[in-house]
């Protein structure tokens, strides 16, 4: 088996303004360290893919970015959002999650109508005007490229939608709350190729208004949609650069072996 040196890294500093940045982020599940000194800068209105073998720490890292690991892990280091370190105890995590929203691997719509999946959180925020609610439902579904498919059945159960439609509904549900950053944890891994293509097209269109960070096992997907890609290995972020450079001119041997299918 090939042995690697992990002290060599190739981490770019994008010149574009960052929407979010981590500084020496470390995650511990009990005694076990799952992430080591992760420092990345995510450019605004760009898509960044996090790739690496199973167990390399991608989801662990992603979940830190909106404080989803709070109850299960100890997270050290800084997460800078608008010059504030949101990894501080006193930060309101619910406000963080309104700005930095998460879409999970398995579509998880509420067992409610399509309309209510979008409107529910808006009503909780105090929006009750029917016309305004209807407008927000429409805009969110359009942004998630689902409107044309569901506009005549908004009062039907979301659970009757296909998996790919449910996932786009979950994206629409996030967008309704006007977040700044979208985190997606393998959002297409449970979907067929046609649904996957629709999700990818949706994300490509959303990058004009949102900063997107996506975990994917699918390297073709990363190369199709991501502007930047970070390669994770055994809890270390070894390489981070523009996607084309990472896939065509990897600087680190482990990255090269991973993307050429020699391990993982
Ligand atoms: N809740 C948890 N409790 C304990 N250990 C965990 C927990 N979640 C993840 N781990 C461990 O942390 C390490 C990184 O896991 P993580 O899920 O972040 O990797 P990943 O790269 O996202 O993997 P995959 O691609 O399989 O989802 C693994 O060793 C995993 O077993």
CATH topology call of the domain at 10-108 and 181-259: Rossmann fold
The DSSP helix count reads 10
Global geometry: globular
The CATH superfamily of the domain at 10-108 and 181-259 is P-loop containing nucleotide triphosphate hydrolases
- Biggest sheet statistics: 7 strands, mixed
Gross CATH architecture of the domain at 10-108 and 181-259: 3-Layer(aba) Sandwich
Which CATH C-level class of the domain at 10-108 and 181-259 is it? Alpha Beta
The portion of residues forming beta strands comes to 25-35%
Bound molecule kinds, no repeats:
adenosine-5'-triphosphate
Describe this structure in words.
The protein is of the alpha/beta class and 264 residues long. It has a domain at 10-108 and 181-259: Rossmann fold, CATH 3.40.50. The chain is 34% helix and 25% strand. The chain is built from 10 helices and 12 strands. It has helices spanning 58-64, 93-99, 114-124, 130-143, 147-150, 163-176, 193-206, 219-225, 243-248, 253-259, and strands at residues 10-11, 18-29, 32-38, 41-43, 47-52, 74-81, 84-85, 100-103, 181-185, 211-215, 228-233, 236-242. Strands 1-12-11-5-10-9-8 form a 7-stranded mixed beta sheet, with helices on both faces. Strand 2 (18-29) and strand 3 (32-38) form a beta hairpin. Adenosine-5'-triphosphate (ATP) binds at residues 29, 34, 52, 54-60, 72, 217, 232. Residues 29, 34, 52, 54-60, 72, 217, 232 line the site of adenosine-5'-triphosphate (ATP). It comes from Loigolactobacillus bifermentans DSM 20003. Residues 20-259 form the ABC transporter domain. InterPro entries: AAA+_ATPase (IPR003593), ABC_transporter-like_ATP-bd (IPR003439), ABC_transporter-like_CS (IPR017871), P-loop_NTPase (IPR027417), PstB-like (IPR005670).
């Amino acid at each position: 088996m090939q042995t690697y040196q992990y002290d060599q890294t190739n981490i770019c500093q994008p010149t574009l303004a960052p929407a979010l940045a981590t500084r020496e982020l470390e995650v511990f599940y009990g005694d076990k360290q799952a992430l080591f000194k992760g420092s990345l800068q995510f450019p605004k209105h760009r898509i960044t893919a996090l790739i690496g073998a199973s167990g390399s720490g991608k989801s662990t890292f992603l979940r830190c970015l909106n404080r989803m690991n709070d109850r299960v892990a100890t997270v050290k280091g800084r997460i800078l959002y608008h010059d504030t370190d949101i990894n501080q105890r006193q930060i309101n995590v619910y406000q963080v999650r309104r700005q930095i929203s998460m879409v999970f691997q398995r579509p998880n719509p509420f067992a409610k109508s399509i309309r209510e999946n979008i409107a529910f959180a808006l009503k909780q925020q105090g929006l009750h005007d029917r016309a305004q609610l209807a407008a927000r439902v429409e805009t969110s579904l359009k942004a998630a490229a689902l409107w044309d498919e569901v506009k005549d059945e908004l009062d039907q159960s979301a659970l009757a939608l296909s998996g790919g439609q449910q996932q786009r509904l979950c994206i629409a549900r996030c967008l309704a709350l006007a977040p700044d950053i979208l985190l997606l944890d393998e959002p297409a891994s449970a979907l067929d190729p046609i649904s996957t293509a629709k999700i990818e097209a949706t994300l490509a269109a959303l990058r004009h208004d949102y900063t997107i960070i996506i975990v994917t096992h699918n390297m073709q997907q990363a190369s199709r949609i991501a502007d930047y890609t970070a390669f994770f290995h055994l809890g270390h972020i070894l390489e981070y650069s523009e996607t084309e450079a990472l896939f065509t001119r990897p600087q680190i041997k482990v990255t090269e072996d991973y993307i050429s299918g020699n391990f993982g």
